[in-house]
Amino acid sequence: MYILGINAYHGDASAAIIRDGRLIAAAEEERFNRFKHCAGFPAQAIKYCLTAAGISIEQVDHIGISRNPAANLRKKVMFAAKKAARGSGLLGGAAEPSETSGGQSGFKRLSERLASVAKVRSFKDDLANALGVPKEAIRAELHHVEHHRAHLASCFFVSPFERAGMLSIDGFGDFVSTMWGVGEGTKFEVLGQIEYPHSTGIVYTATTQFIGFPWYGDEGKVMGLAPYGQPRFMDEFRDIIRTEEGGKFTLNLDYFRHHTDGVEMSWDEGSPVIGTIFSKAYAKTFGEPRQPGEPLTDRERDIAASLQLRLEEVGFHILNHLHEVTGLTDLGLAGGVALNSVMNGKILLNTPFKRVYVQPAAGDNGTSLGVCYYIYNQILSESRGEVMEGAYTGPEFSNEEIRAVLEQYGLEYETYSDRELTQRAARDIAEGAVLGWFQGRMEFGPRALGNRSIVVDPRRADMKEILNHRIKKREPFRPFAPSILEEHTGEYFEQTHPAPTMLMVYQIRPEKRALIPAVTHVDGSGRLQTVTPELNPRYYQLIADFHALTGVPVVLNTSFNENEPIVCTPQHAIDCFLKTRMDVLYLGNYALRRAQNSVA
Ligand SMILES: [Fe+2]
Asked: Under a CB-based contact definition with an 8 Å cutoff, are residues 504 and 536 in contact?
């Protein structure tokens, strides 16, 4: 039985496919069409999934989309009616929140809303168009899965847990920002939810905009900025998000525009763009907003620190409630806010939970995968079996395919055996090279996990500037992350719970910080990836060889891209190598060196 899951008309559009419960493939559209966080319809991701499964659309039994306009309809109507009574008017002003998520929110006027609903209804047409087949070719049963149920399914059914508490937390999706529940076997039950217009994701995005980072996905920058500041605005943020009994919270809505004026968003087929969410109350409390490009001051750093700390407080408030009502110590986590790896890394220290599974594609990308398992387990009651430990679900290229591309480019390359490959690459890294590492299946979700990575020596304090200068061009305050051989985690970090998909930030042991300065953040933390030979044998061997050479079982791992989506194909990787100042690029068993190829 084949099930195809789709996240469409949301940021990070994606597709996933499963066969008899086994995860065959999952990928984001942005990797194919090269628009970061691409919304719209994931035509190429769907085609890739069908190709990876070796089938055509006619053979798919179920297709699901992670959006259900009928979900919470009564609440939506009530909310719109209340607004109308207050004079907004259904047609004249803000009509209803759009179903957005991943840290976004907004209203659309009624006409836009209807267009949006119609879009979901026409998703069979869009699918047929995208694949160039008649609509009749799609014989699968279609499912609309409510947004947060798709998130929850993505962090429970592929988790290692038989029973677990579950939390989905984001901007908004299907009128809800936060949903928690309990999963057991092939079923989960929703225990509570927070509805529009209250949302932690909205607060994070609004504040991110206020301190001058306006783009979709910029929230991570603010998380990186936070350790530079002092949380001197806690009273303000405790007023902006107020916690209540029963794991609930509400926003002080004076600070936001999403529930009154509407927030413009264009999703089109390209990168999403969001209008201003914060209201004038932010300026009254904090002063004028920082414009993008203006120098950062202590005020922005302190706002970031306060926001981050308040998010953590609210997160633990919900999780402690979830533990109280379930008594469980295993937790599944998903939703755009679950990409906050600083918060995630503190869960074990601040709640009774003992094991945490974060869906690797915790943002809306992962809802396509969640949809598959919602249908397979929750609806069809089929038994579980897939544990998604890593995120290596994307396209891969054989050595033959890679060599053909190298020949096409007319570049000089070296060929290595498996054993030589990692040894030579480890030596390059230890000698200070900026090294591209393109291997195996592309990762699903925002993190490069050693298959589409740039890898450098973490012992060199200047590596951050070298990377930024030569390739990444990121804000200097943003940290770079370490990959560590899992068995050495406790020597270097204060916590040892595995973090195979780089969604946990732990404190680095004080005595080790000077040893790996390029991956030690200003507060002594690191967003680690724990690497095992089972999950990624070649990447494990690379780090093991670096360890043998240097005595340090850690490398710096950053995503293989230059201000664009992470590379997907050998062509993308070579293009990135040629236009940046990378020293060497390993693709499969081949290596390209800058010195041997007359490129600038
Ligand atoms: Fe979401």
From this structure: no
CB 349 within 8 A of CB 328: no
Pick from 96, 427, 119, 130: which is nearest to 263 by CA? 96
d(CA 148, CA 101): 10
Other residues' Cβ atoms within 10 Å of the Cβ of residue 587: 23
pTM: 0.93
452: nearest Cα among 583, 544, 592, 569: 569
Residues in the chain: 600
User: Quick one: which of 345, 354, 336 has its CA closest to 528?
Assistant: 345
Q: How far is CA 584 from CA 410, 414, 571, 600, in A?
A: 16, 11, 15, 13
Query: Would you state the pLDDT for residue 390?
Result: 96
Q: Is the pLDDT of residue 576 over 50?
A: yes
Contacts of 285 (CB under 8 A, 6+ apart): 236, 255
The CA-atom distances, in angstroms, between 368 and each of 60, 328, 519 are 15, 27, 32
Whether the upstream peptide bond of residue 482 has omega within 30° of 0, thus cis, is no
Distance between CA atoms of 425 and 545, rounded to whole angstroms? 9
State the DSSP string of 481-536: EEEEEGGGHHHHBS--S--TTS-EEEEBPGGGGGGSGGG--TTSEEEEEEE-TTT-
Q: What confidence tier does 163 reach under pLDDT thresholds 50, 70, 90?
A: very high
Inter-CA distances, 316 with 93, 303, 349, Å: 36, 20, 10
Residue 249 backbone dihedrals phi, psi, to 5 degrees: -150, 160
Closest CA to 301 of 207, 411, 172, 423: 207
pLDDT tens digits, 363-375: 999 999 999 999 9
How many secondary structure helices (H) and strands (E) does the chain include?
Answer: 20, 25
CA dihedral 505, 511, 515, 521 (to 10 degrees): 30
Task: Please measure the distance between the N-terminal and C-terminal CA atoms of the chain and give it in whole angstroms.
Answer: 51
593 CA → ligand 1 middle, Å? 41
Sign of the dihedral defined by the CA atoms of residues 533, 536, 540, 541, in that order: positive
Contact 186, 385 (CB under 8 A): no
CB 97 within 8 A of CB 172: yes
The region, left, alpha or beta by phi > 0 then psi within -120 to 50, assigned to residue 536 is beta
Unique residue bearing structure tokens 């710096």: 556
Helix 123-131 and helix 43-53, axial crossing angle in degrees, nearest 10 = 70
Ligand 1 centroid – CA 100 distance (Å):
7
| Under 8 Å between Cβ of 360 and 503 | yes
Instruction: State in Å: Cα 280 to ligand 1 middle.
Output: 27
Q: How far is the CA of 339 from the centre of ligand 1 (A)?
A: 11
What's the 511 CA to ligand 1 centre distance in angstroms? 39
Closest CA to 418 of 589, 591, 592: 589
Instruction: Please state, rounded to an integer, the average pLDDT across all residues of the chain.
Output: 92
CA distance 370 to 598: 47
Question: What residues sit around ligand 1, an ion, with C-beta below 5 angstroms?
Answer: 101-102, 170, 173, 364
Residue 39's identity, in one-letter code, is A
